[in-house]
Amino acid sequence: MPEGRFDSVSYEDVSGWKLKECDHRLYLQGIGHVRIRLHRPLRGVPKTLHVRRQGRRWSATIQCAGVPSQPLSPKNRPAGFDLGVANLAASSDGEFFENPRHLARGREALTNAQRCLARQQRGSKRRKHAVYRVAAQHRRIANRRRDGLHRLSRRLVNTYGLLVFEDLRIANMVRSARGTLEEPGSQVAQKAGLNREILAASWGGLISMVAYKAPEAPLKAPDNADAGREVIVVNPKGTSQRCSSCGHTEAASRPSQAVFCCRGCGFKDHADVNAARNILWLGLSLRRQKREAEAGAA
Questions:
Q1: What is the pLDDT of residues 250-275, one digit of tens each?
Q2: Of 8, 66, 67, 164, which is least packed with CB atoms within 10 Å of its CB?
Q3: How far apart are CA 84 and CA 97, in angstroms?
């Protein structure tokens, strides 16, 4: 029998469920046959089933064992990526990946649904339906964000052999600026808006998707025959102020958010691209040090 809450049911073996792909039906013990939409055919041997409810919708996730691997074509192209709000990412090659801003695009519909909810009487049927509408708007925004990150992460993994990202402490970056009664913060509204945009960009989600789509774990040297992609995260300290051409580091070299002009050699570039090149440089240095340490230990 399945175990779990009312909105989440798990079948740990195939004795309690059966999938009929040709008929698009899923049999669940104690429930019966349910019509489903298959996103793609199963690969491997089905093992477990997880059924979950989100609002008024149900979804089923099937975990399979023995799934045949699909190795990616070899790529030796390395790239570093600077993550931001104006652009979701900028590569060391000079390519910019637009931030779709799904939260801002869906904010009007979400606000209207929340206003409708606020006008309803607690315990009424209309309030219950209004709660469903608010949840549906949140789910729609989250689904759009997740889909966009999946598409971008797949594109990056298919294009580059080495991907270097910033090891960002996002929880520290989005701390409130309100302060205390004795020492109130400054520019609280601006900081709150920036925090909202940082969380909506989901930098951590992008990095995690790239990491699990790469056939190997981060920081693992790609010297195996089946190695596909390598993902490295580095400390981003100083990458926005360091010149990728001469190595000179100075805060004044970045006079604005988008412009980098080295005070040492006069090198000019987009600030995000310059930072991405520094991130790539750190990743290559880290990989070289790791390989030298492994060679010395051998």
A1: 999 998 889 999 999 999 999 999 99
A2: 66
A3: 10
Q: Tokens 């192209």 appear where?
A: 77
Domains in the chain, number: 2
Q: Quick count: other Cβ atoms within 10 Å of Cβ 158?
A: 12
Residue-number span of the structural domain to which 257 is assigned: 78-180+189-297
CA distance linking residue 9 with residue 176, whole number of Å: 37
For residue 262, the one-letter residue type is C
Q: Can you tell me the distance from the alpha carbon of 169 to that of 101, in angstroms, rounded to the nearest whole number?
A: 21
pTM for the model stands at 0.82
Residues 130, 274: one domain?
yes
Which residues are part of the catalytic machinery? Answer: 82, 166, 272
Q: Do residues 237 and 99 both lie within one domain?
A: yes
